[in-house]
Design goal:
Blueprint: E1 5-10, H1 25-36, E2 42-47, H2 60-76
Length: 78
């Protein structure tokens, strides 16, 4: 469960979870490794959202989560 945001490294793994409409990031990396003998370094950033109705903008809670993730990147990765 993501409380605010979560950053993780993704590793190649052929998991056969793909369908005609979805494929895992790990499977894409494993396919790259298999076809091209190369898998790029990949990170996955997950930011918690709260409402999914069609509307403009973010909820106040989601804005706080986005700001927390942005601050993390400014402090640790830039």
């Amino acid at each position: 469960m993501v409380l605010s945001f979560h950053l993780e490294q993704v590793e190649p793994k052929m998991d056969f979870s793909f369908t005609s409409h979805a494929i895992s990031i790990s499977s894409i990396l494993a396919t790259c490794q298999h076809c091209f003998d190369y898998a790029p370094e990949v990170s996955l950033l997950t930011i918690k959202g709260y409402e999914w109705n069609l509307q403009l903008g973010l909820t106040e809670q989601a804005k706080l989560n986005l700001n927390a993730a942005t601050d993390f990147f400014k402090e640790h990765l830039l």
